[in-house]
Amino acid sequence: MIYLIWAQDKKFGIGFENKLPWNIREEMQHFRKTTNGKIVVMGRKTYESIGKPLPNRKNIVLSKKQKCDIKYVNDDVEVYTDFKKIISDYKNEDIYVIGGKMIYELFFKYANVLIISKIFGEYKCDEFINFNLKDFYCFKREQYDTFVVEYYRRIENE
C-alpha cells in the first residue's frame, strides 16, 4: 500500500524555505511512530533538509539525477530517478511518502491512504498542497491539543 503522510496548517501550507514552518513535538512524535520501521520515500530536497537518513527506516530518495550528490548514502538509503520503479520494486510492501510537494503530487493518484495532520494555526509558508479528496473517505481521527490527524482511505471502485 502507498501512504502519503504530511502536516499542513489551516491554509494548506506544508513548508517554508525547504523546512517545516512549525516545531510541534507531538506532531513529530506521531510522524516518528507512524513511519518507524517502514519504507519512506522523499524527494532530494526533503532528504537534504533532514540532513541524514531517518533512523530505523528504509530511506528512498527520488531525484531527477541518479548521480546526485546525496550524502550519507548507505544500506538504509536508495536513490531512484523514476517514481513508477519505486512503486514496482516495492509493490508488496507498504511505503510512506513523506514529501515534498512534487513527490506528493507524483504519488497522489496511486495513494491508498492519506495521513494528514491538520494544524490549527496559520504559519508563514511558501509550499502548499490542497488535494481534492473526493475519492477518499475519512475513517479515523486523532485529536491533539494543537492539531488533529485525519486518516483517509481511497474509495474502491466496484
The residue ranges in which pLDDT falls below 50 over 5 or more consecutive positions are: none
Q: What's the gyration radius in Å? A: 15 Å
- Would you report the number of β strands? 10
Structural class: alpha/beta
Number of helices: 4
Sheet with the most strands: spatial strand order: 5-4-3-6-1-7-10-9
The biggest beta sheet, please? 8 strands, mixed
Share of β-strand residues: 25-35%
State mean pLDDT (0 to 100 scale).
93
Q: What is the approximate shape? A: globular
Distance between the termini: 18 Å
**H-E order:** EEHEHEEHEHEEEE
Helix amount: 10-25%
Describe the structure.
The strands form 2 sheets. This protein has an 8-stranded mixed beta sheet with strand order 5-4-3-6-1-7-10-9, with helices on both faces. The protein has a two-stranded antiparallel ribbon with strand order 2-8. With 158 residues, the protein is of the alpha/beta class. It has 4 helices and 10 strands, in the order ββαβαββαβαββββ. It is 20% helix and 34% strand.
Gist?
The protein has 158 residues and is α/β, with parallel strands linked by helices. The protein has helices at 25-35, 44-50, 83-89, 101-107; strands at residues 2-8, 13-15, 39-43, 58-62, 77-80, 95-99, 113-119, 127-128, 136-143, 147-154.
